[in-house]
Amino acid sequence: MHPSGRATAPSAPVAAAGPALAVCLAAPALFVFEITWLGWLLAAVALVLAWIVDRRTGVASFRRGGSPSLLRDVSLIAVGLLVVSSVPLAAELDNAAMLRFTLALGGGVVLPYVMSRFLYHDRAIRFPWRAGGRWRAVQWVWLAAVLVLGWLILPFYFITSGAYQNWPVVDSADLITRLFVGVGAVGIWDELFFICITFVLLRRHLPDWAANVLQAIVFVSFLWELGYREWAPAFTIPFALLQGIIFLRTRSLGYIVTVHLLFDAVVFAALVHAHNPGMLDAVFLVR
Questions:
Q1: Cα separation of 191 and 32, whole Å?
Q2: CB burial class (10 A; 0-12, 13-18, 19+) of residue 276?
Q3: Which of 140, 208, 220, 235 has the fewest CB neighbours in a 10 Å radius?
Q4: Which of 115, 114, 106 is nearest to 75 (CA)?
Q5: Residue 76 main-chain phi, psi, to 5 deg
C-alpha cells in the first residue's frame, strides 16, 4: 500500500468504474427513491462486475491479504449501505427510533471494518483521528467560515423551503437535548462511513476526483432520506465534495469531523429556531 492510501496495483480505473458506480447508485435507489429491490439489485450487479474485473486483472478476490480486490472493497461498501437501509431514516427522537439509528448506523461502520480487518486481513479502513499534524492557519479560518456559511444558508433553507418540518417538533428541553445528540452523532457517523470507508475504498481503484464524486452521491442520498430535501442538494453536494478534498489534504478524520460538527451545530440551532419562533430571533436573519 502506498502511504497515500492508494493501492500499489489498483484495478484499471475504466474497468473499476462500472462496479463502483453501480454500488454507489444503490444509495439513491435505497435512500432517495426508496426502492429496496432496486438498491439490492444494483449492489448485486456491482459485486458481479467487480468479480469479473478481479478475474481479468488477475487479482485473487478471496485470498486473505495480497493485492487490493475490487470485489472485496465493493462488498464492504454494499454491506454498509444495506445495513443502514434496513431501518427508516426519517428523523425521529423517541427511544425506539434512536436505538434503531444507533444499531443500524453503528452496524454500517462496524461490520465493514470487522470484515476488512478480520475476514479479508486488510487494513484499508482506518480512522486517522490525529493524522496530518497541527492545524494550519487556513484550517482555522475554514472552521470560522463554516460557521458563517451555515448561519447564512441553513435558516434560510429550513424556513423558506419548509424542510424543518422533516424533523420532529422540538419544543421541550428533553426533545432539544435529543436533537442535539442525534444531529451530532449522525454528523460523526457521516465522516466515518462516507469518507473513511466509501471514499477510501474507492480511491484504491479510481482517481481521487472520481472516488470523491461517487462518495458524494452516497453522502447526499443518505442526507436526502434523513430530511435534507427540497433544494438541499445545492449545498449538501458541495459540502460532501469539500469534505473529501479536505480529507485528501489533511489526512485527518479529527479535522473533517470538527468541520461537520460546527456545521451541524448551526443545523441544530436553525431547527430549534424554526420550530420555536421567537426563541432565537436575535441570532438568525430569517424568522
A1: 20
A2: middle
A3: 140
A4: 115
A5: -65, -40
On whether the CB atoms of residues 42 and 23 are closer than 8 A, the answer is yes
- How confident is the model at residue 8, as a pLDDT? 42
Other Cβ atoms less than 10 A from the Cβ of 188: the count is: 16
Q: What is the DSSP letter of 255?
A: H
pLDDT in tens, 108-136: 999 999 999 999 989 889 999 988 788 99
Count of residues making up the chain: 287
Structural contact between residues 244 and 215, judged by C-beta atoms closer than 8 angstroms: yes
Q: Which amino acid is at 115?
A: M
Cell reading at 108:
454500517
User: Residue 165 corresponds to which cell in the numbers above?
Assistant: 418540518
Q: What's the grid cell of residue 262?
A: 460546527
Say whether pLDDT at 84 is over 60.
Answer: yes
- Which pLDDT band holds residue 6 (cuts at 50, 70, 90)? low
In sequence order, which ranges of the chain are alpha helices (DSSP H)? 13-27, 36-57, 70-84, 95-114, 137-161, 173-190, 200-203, 208-226, 233-250, 253-275
Task: Classify each residue of 218-248 as buried b or exposed e, where b means 16 or more C-beta atoms within 10 Å of its C-beta.
Answer: bbbbbbbbbbbbeebbebbbebbbbbbebbb
Quote the radius of gyration of the chain (alpha carbons, Å): 19
Measure Cα distances from 204 to 131, 132, 195 in Å.
19, 20, 13
Cα–Cα distance, 179 to 148 (Å, whole number): 21
Question: Are the C-beta atoms of 112 and 124 separated by less than 8 Å?
Answer: no
User: Tens digits of per-residue pLDDT, 168-190?
Assistant: 999 999 999 999 999 999 999 99
The confidence band for 2, taking pLDDT boundaries of 50, 70 and 90, is: very low
